[in-house]
Design goal:
Oligomer: single chain
Strand content: over 45%
Shape: globular
Number of domains: 1
Number of strands: 9
Structural class: mainly beta
Strand order of the largest sheet: 1-2-3-4-9-8-7-6
């Protein structure tokens, strides 16, 4: 996914969201989860990769229980500035509703394969090793805490 998709879906004259452009890498890789009260409550997992925030919509609250696996649907990349975004996306705009930061911190990429990622998250709510596993290409993934 690219930032072009992100920009195409938004009217920046009407939404308080940041316009998208690639950024240079930060010192530590950004991890965050937005709680998004849109047409359906969901959580947006975001990981800094390749100068953007790779993003997944997670329909149910993320869990620290290794036996609980959550569907994570890959969506368009977001700009790095989005890591600080909280606010209300106006009615009639893509993703309309309230967005607030649910968890934030950093992450370390442990392993990357065609099937997904293993990451070590250091957030306030989520800590430890987590897996993002692509089970039905191109966009359906599972997100879960790895058994230690």
């Amino acid at each position: 996914m690219t930032l072009e998709k992100y920009n195409e879906k938004r009217d920046f004259k009407k939404t308080p969201e940041h316009s998208g452009q690639k950024n240079v890498k930060t010192d530590k890789s950004i991890y965050l989860i937005h709680e998004h009260h849109a047409s359906h409550l969901h959580w947006d997992l975001r990981l800094e990769m390749e100068g953007t925030l790779k993003s997944w919509a997670v329909p149910k609250e993320p869990s620290i229980n290794p036996s609980v696996k959550r569907l994570a649907i890959m969506v368009e990349d977001h700009p790095l500035k989005y890591a600080k975004f909280e606010g209300v996306i106006p009615e009639g705009q893509y993703g309309a509703g309230t967005v607030k930061i649910w968890d934030k911190g950093t992450f370390e990429l442990i392993e990357k394969t065609e099937k997904g990622f293993v990451i070590k998250i250091d957030g306030k709510k989520l800590k430890g090793t987590f897996v993002l596993f692509r089970f039905k290409p191109p966009n359906n993934w599972l997100f879960f805490k790895k058994r230690e």
